[in-house]
Amino acid sequence: MEGISVEQAVEQILQHTPVINETEETELNKAGGRVLAQDMVAGFDNPPFDRSPVDGYACKAEDLAGATKEHPVRLKVMEEIDAGQYSEREIQQGQAVRIMTGAAIPNGCNCCIYQEDTDYGEDTVEVYSEQKRWSNYCFSGEDFKKGTTLLKKGTHIGYVEAAILAGMGVAKVPVYRQPRIVLLTTGDEVVEPGIPLPEGKIYNSNMTMLSVRLRELGIESFHMEAVKDDPTVMSEKLKEAAKVADMIITTGGVSVGKKDIMHESLRLMGAERIFWRVKMKPGMPTLFSAYKKTSDITATDHCASEREIPIISLSGNPFGVAVSIELLIRPALEKMMQDPSIGLKEVNGIMADNFEKGIKGRRFIRAYLENGKFHLPNGLHSNGVLSSMAGCNCLIDTKTMENQESRSLNAGDKVGAILL
Ligand SMILES: Nc1nc2c(c(=O)[nH]1)N[C@H]1C(S)=C(S)[C@@H](COP(=O)(O)OP(=O)(O)OC[C@H]3O[C@@H](n4cnc5c(N)ncnc54)[C@H](O)[C@@H]3O)O[C@H]1N2
Ligand code: MOO
């Protein structure tokens, strides 16, 4: 197979991929999936007060010595404290307060009692069990202490991290700005879904695949366009895209046919070819270029700065696009977004089925991993066929086959894969 290895391809893509260091503030509710651009330090103890974890009563544990159902201890109930209320009262020997879960425990108390262990009394209460000091008692700061760094710069914000930020009282979250990715597809045979299909045409599945996958990986902002098979038009579109993009992804037109326009389009644009062809199936004819863009001189910034924009041109076959997104684009996004959660996850397992095609070179095979076993979907494994990939959750990498010389992959073989 012609070309460089997948690893070399990734290395070269990374070399020409910028890290986005610009930051912005986003609303807390929109922070999920973003990456923190600053350490987040607690500004107060949480909870800010000692609180009851039960609905019941708070009192002094010493008062309850020897309490049983037969010989209850009777305490005077001074007041009721519900969650959200605060009492300045100092509780004395023989006294208790009625208290609800989450309410601030008043001074003088050192335990809380489940109301089920009492007679639910209003003015006085009979308590049926002893308590140790500090039992059913949550201390202020048990969640976090003022001055503690709770989340570090570079943290991927998931639902838990977002909720921690909410608990800290943060409404605007400092995050790295999102990469601006422009998606262009080529192909005179390709039309957009939603219109009747003319003879000789197919619907554009690559654009939707790329945009939805990017969204799944946390990238919302991008521009998309289907461009006809004309190198002059495409080179203009590429130049336009380069004005706004941090990265450009194209599909189709990278092979050797008369209409494989990407080579000429990128030359006309003035982009530098870094590599063409990767030793992998599908996605072999992937073309990677870098475009040096000089930003305009502005009034405030008198020196023109040069920026490099990576242009990843994928083959048109939809399964090739699906595989290349994972192997080539994800590592670039991981670097660009400084988000380790985007990195590839590798898994090992055992083949449950035979792979019926012969294996030449390094191949990535769609599969479904369940309980350590790789199941192959029904339907063709051709590179232009996507329908059989529905429901698959991994790509088997034939480089991980125990017997590298083997041309077949059979049930029982140990093999590795990347998770989708
Ligand atoms: N003589 C040779 N022919 C081919 C070679 C070769 O080495 N010598 N390589 C083959 C391999 S491998 C691949 S992969 C393809 C790559 O072709 P291109 O990247 O130039 O892609 P296209 O020709 O434009 O399209 C390939 C295939 O995918 C369909 N397609 C394209 N765009 C879309 C889209 N947006 N949505 C859905 N489907 C799309 C297109 O209609 C073609 O069927 O070249 C082989 N040929
Ligand atoms: O590299 Mo192509 O995607 O094998 O069919």
From TrEMBL:
Which cofactor is essential here? Mg(2+)
Query: Looking at the record's lineage, which domain of life comes first?
Result: Bacteria
Spell out the reaction equation it catalyses: adenylyl-molybdopterin + molybdate = Mo-molybdopterin + AMP + H(+)
Record bears the keyword Transit peptide? no
Please list the coiled coil stretches: none
Q: What is its EC number?
A: 2.10.1.1
Q: Where is the signal peptide?
A: none
Q: Name one GO molecular function term.
A: molybdopterin molybdotransferase activity
Q: Which UniProt keywords apply?
A: Magnesium, Metal-binding, Molybdenum, Molybdenum cofactor biosynthesis, Transferase
Pathway in which this enzyme or protein is active = Cofactor biosynthesis; molybdopterin biosynthesis
Look up keyword Magnesium and say if it applies. Answer: yes
Domain MoaB/Mog span(s) in chain numbering: 182-335
Q: Name one GO biological process term.
A: Mo-molybdopterin cofactor biosynthetic process
One short Pfam name that applies is: MoCF_biosynth
InterPro entries found in the cross-reference section: MoaB/Mog-like_dom_sf, MoaB/Mog_dom, MoeA-like, MoeA_C_domain_IV, MoeA_C_domain_IV_sf, MoeA_linker/N, MoeA_linker/N_sf
> What's any one GO cellular component for it?
cytosol
User: What's its top-level EC category?
Assistant: transferase
Query: What does the sequence similarity comment in the record state about its family?
Result: Belongs to the MoeA family.
Q: What exactly does this protein do?
A: Catalyzes the insertion of molybdate into adenylated molybdopterin with the concomitant release of AMP.
Q: Which PANTHER family match?
A: GEPHYRIN, MOLYBDOPTERIN BIOSYNTHESIS PROTEIN
- Name under which the protein is recorded: Molybdopterin molybdenumtransferase
Q: Which organism is it from?
A: Blautia wexlerae
